[in-house]
């Protein structure tokens, strides 16, 4: 198997090393793992692409490249340039430092890379490690992902739904905020929504008098709809969420017949 890996935390992020370890085992002794990742952190860029400016690509080692672009750019670079003519069988994005459950998935560059791969017709999975009081101070904060990532992917590749339609399915996996030995299992879960929270801004004035805004987040331990991704994560389960890039609100289409 030929696997392309990327992330949004950057080429030197520890989670990318975890992803490479998982991908190497998944690819097998006759497989290949190619890395194309952002040169610098690109968290929160979603499905952004560098449409109005070029991006530099630098080879860092054998099958290892860094780009001055977004995670989606990295997929484009890998598919259409670096691996051109011998496309990957699978794209894996992550392992992200922090969860991409609930509304975080909308902003996530990790998910954005998997989305771009799906748009290119390539099976793709985004993987993220949730943090909380039970795992943020342990020696290996990626322990749950490191220990359970390979089997979760193998099961998903074997039993998951993989489509070849225009907006093909890709997957968003989040590992719970607990040590590996406390992971309770895997749950298929819809994307949740954390109510009474969200991103905002906090203003600051620089010494020169210029005004700057820092984007602020919110606590990640908020409950979501029972059975949704963040809910099962906080219960100790790995969440697996099927997604599509199709943004149509299909449930509202019939109601709009009145405007025709």
Count of separate structural domains: 1
Strand order within the widest sheet? 3-4-2-1-5-6-7-11-8
CATH level-two architecture: 3-Layer(aba) Sandwich
Share of helix, binned: 25-40%
Number of helices: 7
- Rg of Cα set: 19 Å
Q: Class in CATH?
A: Alpha Beta
CATH superfamily: Survival protein SurE-like phosphatase/nucleotidase
Enzyme class: hydrolase
Domain Survival protein SurE-like phosphatase/nucleotidase: 3-195
Family: Belongs to the SurE nucleotidase family.
InterPro entries: SurE, SurE-like_Pase/nucleotidase, SurE-like_sf
Please give the structural blueprint.
Blueprint: E1 2-6, H1 14-27, E2 32-38, E3 57-61, E4 64-67, H2 71-82, E5 90-97, H3 104-107, H4 109-119, E6 124-129, H5 143-159, E7 170-175, E8 185-188, E9 200-205, E10 211-216, H6 229-234, E11 237-243, H7 250-253
Parallel strand pairs: 1-2, 1-5, 2-4, 5-6, 6-7, 8-11
Antiparallel strand pairs: 3-4, 7-11, 9-10
EC number: 3.1.3.5
Function: Nucleotidase that shows phosphatase activity on nucleoside 5'-monophosphates.
Main location: cytoplasm
């Amino acid at each position: 198997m030929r696997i392309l890996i990327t992330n949004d935390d950057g080429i030197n992020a520890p989670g990318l090393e975890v992803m490479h370890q998982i991908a190497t085992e998944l690819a097998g002794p006759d497989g290949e793992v190619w890395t194309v990742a952002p040169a610098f952190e690109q968290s929160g860029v979603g499905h952004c692409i560098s449409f109005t400016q070029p991006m530099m690509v630098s080879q860092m080692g054998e099958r290892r490249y860094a780009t001055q672009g977004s995670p989606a750019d990295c997929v484009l670079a890998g598919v259409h340039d670096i691996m051109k003519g011998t496309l990957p069988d699978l794209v894996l994005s992550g392992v992200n430092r922090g969860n991409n459950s609930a509304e975080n998935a909308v902003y996530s560059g990790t998910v954005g890379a998997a989305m771009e791969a799906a748009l290119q017709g390539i099976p793709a999975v985004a993987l993220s490690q949730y943090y909380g009081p039970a795992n943020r101070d342990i020696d290996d904060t990626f322990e749950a992902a490191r220990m359970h990532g390979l089997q979760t992917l193998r099961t998903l590749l074997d039993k998951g739904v993989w489509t070849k339609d225009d907006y093909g399915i890709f997957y968003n996996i989040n590992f719970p905020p607990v040590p590996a030995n406390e992971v309770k299992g895997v749950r298929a879960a819809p994307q949740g929504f954390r109510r009474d929270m969200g991103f905002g801004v906090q203003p600051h004035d620089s010494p020169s008098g210029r005004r700057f805004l820092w984007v602020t987040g919110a606590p990640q331990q908020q409950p979501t709809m029972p059975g949704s991704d963040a809910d099962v994560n906080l219960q100790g389960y790995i969440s697996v969420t099927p997604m599509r890039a199709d943004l149509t609100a299909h449930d509202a289409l019939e109601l709009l017949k009145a405007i025709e």
